[in-house]
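Q: Please design a sequence for this.
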């Protein structure tokens, strides 16, 4: 039987990765759209050639890989270029994610995406789990992890769906405001519940 798909979403610094890692350690097949986004622009893949053609060879590093920071800086101030890049990459990332989900052999599979709600991808999953965290904690964690300024983190948070928007679409919410041991116990509790579901519903 084809596994049903759980969407895993949460804003920057919410702890999505820690949650995904714990589910993976329990034997759940996890596909991360951020990873898929990296795969589709690897050297030798058609997307990378198209990007270099469009933006110029300046977006490539000496070893032929994509200069992500350089590209981000170029599109950050330019909505048209950002739209062009998204138009190229989103369908490719979706295909890559679908391909990896189709390899799942666990009772359910997880699709992790920071932009699940923003990109309308929540409609492609059977159930949505949102990792939620108070904004102040989100800021503090993301600043520490990425060595970023408060201004940078706030700009990313602004580009993501609001907490309210994410929670509105959630079937399950995991509030990640304690330590890792507590978080892992919550994931185990959810996993036991998910194993009782068929197609993401009771």
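A: Design:
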């Amino acid at each position: 039987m084809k596994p049903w798909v759980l969407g895993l979403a949460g804003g920057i610094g919410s702890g999505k990765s820690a949650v995904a890692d714990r589910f993976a350690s329990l034997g759940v097949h996890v596909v991360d759209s951020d990873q898929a986004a990296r795969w589709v622009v690897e050297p030798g893949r058609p997307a990378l050639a198209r990007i270099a053609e469009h933006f110029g060879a300046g977006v490539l590093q000496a070893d032929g890989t994509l200069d992500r920071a350089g590209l981000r800086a170029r599109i950050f101030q330019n909505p048209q270029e950002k739209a062009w890049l998204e138009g190229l990459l989103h369908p490719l990332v979706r295909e890559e994610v679908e391909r990896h989900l189709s390899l799942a052999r666990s009772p359910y599979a997880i699709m992790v995406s920071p932009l699940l709600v923003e990109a309308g991808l929540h409609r492609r999953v059977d159930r949505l789990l949102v990792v939620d965290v108070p904004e102040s904690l989100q800021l503090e964690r993301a600043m520490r992890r990425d060595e970023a300024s408060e201004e940078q983190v706030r700009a990313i948070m602004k580009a993501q769906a609001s907490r309210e928007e994410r929670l509105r679409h959630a079937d399950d919410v995991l509030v990640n405001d304690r330590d890792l041991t507590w978080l892992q116990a919550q994931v185990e509790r959810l996993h036991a519940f998910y194993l009782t579901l068929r197609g993401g519903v009771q």
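Q: Thanks. Anything notable?
A: DSSP finds nine helices and five strands in the chain. The longest strand covers residues 4-9.
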